[in-house]
Specification:
Elements lengths: L2 E7 L20 H10 L3 E6 L20 E4 L2 E4 L25 E5 L22 H7 L2 E9 L1 H14 L3 E10 L6 H12 L2 E2 L1
């Protein structure tokens, strides 16, 4: 039987209530995710890990505000509040996340000029994180994705998982969304169309 893995996306302090880019009720999923981690054969985590002054931060662009969109070399880029800065408290995993069982932590967004939503590729859609190769070498082809946020990092990771030939299931009860201008409905529809299983 093909191997299965749980992919836990960005359950970090800055994405939880009180954080710099808080997802509403983001911390509510932690107990459920902990249960899924305990039951999983293999666990992979992703961690947003930006250098200070990252190009996706609104503060890097004078006169721009968070959640505005600019055009960059790889297309439209949403500007965010400074968040998950390398080594900061906000970049740490939520203190109640029981993540010690993780076999791999993929850090993304560490290149100063490219943002990164997906666990598989940077936002230029060309620079891989190495996750696909790691999973293939381990014989893992079935992925369950959980975490923050449903309509950004979870959805982009699930879409890339399918495009890379993996079977992907998103546990919606173990995710929470930002829902920026209808992004949750749009990304849910995109995942369904791509063949991501929504559970």
């Amino acid at each position: 039987m093909a191997g299965s893995a749980l992919v836990v996306i960005d359950i970090q302090n800055d994405f939880c209530p009180g954080g710099a880019l808080a997802v509403a009720s983001g911390d509510e999923i932690v107990p459920l995710v902990n249960g899924l981690i305990a039951d999983a054969d293999h666990v992979v985590l992703t961690q947003d890990w930006h250098p200070a002054g990252h190009s996706s931060f609104a503060s890097t662009h004078p006169g721009k505000d968070p959640f505005q969109t600019i055009d960059v070399s790889y297309g439209p880029q949403t500007l965010w509040p400074d968040h998950c800065v390398q080594g900061s408290e906000g970049a740490l995993f939520h203190p109640k996340l029981e993540w010690a069982k993780a076999e791999l932590v993929i850090r993304k967004g560490f290149r100063p000029s490219i943002d990164s939503y997906s666990a598989f590729f940077e936002n230029d859609r060309r620079t891989p994180t190495g996750l696909a190769g790691y999973l293939r070498e381990r014989g893992i082809s079935n992925l369950t994705l959980v975490g923050l946020a449903t309509d950004f990092c979870v959805a982009y990771s699930a879409l890339d998982a399918v495009s890379e030939g993996f079977h992907a299931t998103v546990r919606l009860d173990a995710c929470r969304a930002i829902d920026l201008d209808g992004s949750l409905a749009e990304m849910t529809q995109r995942m369904r169309r791509a063949g991501v299983r929504l559970a």
